[in-house]
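Database export, one record per block. Field names are fixed; values are copied verbatim from the stored entry.
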Amino acid sequence: MRGRSLNQMLWIFLRLLRSREVIADNIENLDRRELLATIAKLEGQLDEAGSKSSALARSLSGTLEINRKRMENLDRAEESLLVIDAELQRIEQQVQLLREEAAVSGNPDLLSSRLDAVTSTMDETSRWMDANSDLFSTLGPVEEGGGMELPPAPQRTSEE
């Protein structure tokens, strides 16, 4: 049981690391100022083209909408990066606490119950990652040696 809980915590930690890598790579490749300048330029072009050509206005409007969505994705990515960093730090601290409690108490039952409590809090992290998986898939895979392949997720049983 302890092994399964530790594996689940390790699995979540690896998923967080991989997600962090994907998000950080994509944030690094986007320049917020440039994107804002593009949006402002498109808004100006759209104002000018409004009365001239409906086809041009439609095209500019579509391009503007795409760039606004890119800005929204950048905002979500930056926020997600903060959450991921906090979760990684929390897992590291929980592992440290478990080590300290195991050394101090020497009671395997206490360690098991503490590990169960930690694992249940990890379920919340896992749900957050699942809920935000659309962001991670929108960003796409990391190229150039970033292809860390994760093992299959541990299977949950009805006992868990």
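Remark 1: The chain has five helices and no strands.
Remark 2: The mean pLDDT is 79.
End of record.
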